[in-house]
Amino acid sequence: MKLSSPVTAAIRVGLFSFMIVALVSLVYHASKDKIAENEYLDLLHSLQAVLSPDSYDNDLVNDVILLQTQTIYRARKAGKPIAAIIQSTTPYGYNGDIQLLIALDMQGRIIGVRVLKHKETPGLGDKIDLKKSDWILNFAQKSLADNDLSLWAVKRDGGLFDQFTGATITPRAIVNEVKKTALFFQHNQQVIFK
To answer: At 122, is the secondary structure helix, strand, or coil?
Structure first.
């Protein structure tokens, strides 16, 4: 029995589709471990930008909890808590969300802050990026206990932190988010490390 032309075409399309799906599946399974490893190393690199690798001895990437929408990486040395790195996002950037990593020691002192992702205006608000400016380093070694909370603001608002010429919204958003995150840590430290 001879197959009609439309039936033959359908069989060919079906076989071709099957081969493509099989190829995509093969590539996925062959590369998924490498992708997972690269994601792990990228996250570890970001975490180590705010917390020195010699200050902890646990698997920082996998010692993580989610608490009230905050992702928190817990650093320990010899089983004892030494710091938390909180991934936090402020929606108040000039051009939208700014994603941060904020590391705090057990006394609530800020170890480091880095911007993970932003869409701020190049040449103005992008000075929050360490590649463009060292402004983000101004948070290191500061604590809410050091000053009146009202001083945790940009200078234009009567606070201690510089803003950028022509760009106050971006630094204001970050200062407020760092303050908010430090308060969150202060109020939830026992839960974070239970």
So the answer is: coil
d(CA 46, CA 4): 60
Number of domains observed in the structure of the chain? 1
As averages over each run of 10 residues, the pLDDT of the chain (194 residues) reads: 72 82 79 73 88 95 92 96 96 92 96 91 79 91 88 91 83 95 94 88
In a domain, 75, yes or no: yes
Report if residue 9 sits inside a domain. Answer: no
Range of 88's domain?
A: 53-192
Distance CA 44, CA 49 (A): 9
3-state secondary structure 57-117: CCCCCCCEEEECCEEEEEEEECCEEEEEEEEEEEEEECCEEEEEEEEEECCCCEEEEEEEE
N-terminal to C-terminal alpha carbon distance within the chain? 74
What global pTM score does this model have?
A: 0.79
Task: List Cα–Cα distances, 91 to 23, 27, 123, 163, in angstroms.
Answer: 41, 37, 20, 18
How is residue 67 annotated by DSSP?
Answer: E
Residues facing residue 86 across a β-bridge:
72, 102
The first and second tokens of residue 69, run together, are 């929408």
Q: Which tokens belong to 71?
A: 């992702």
* Helical (H) or strand (E) element with 192: helix 169-192
**Any idea which residue has 């075409």 for tokens?**
9
Cβ–Cβ under 8 Å, residues 97 and 117: yes
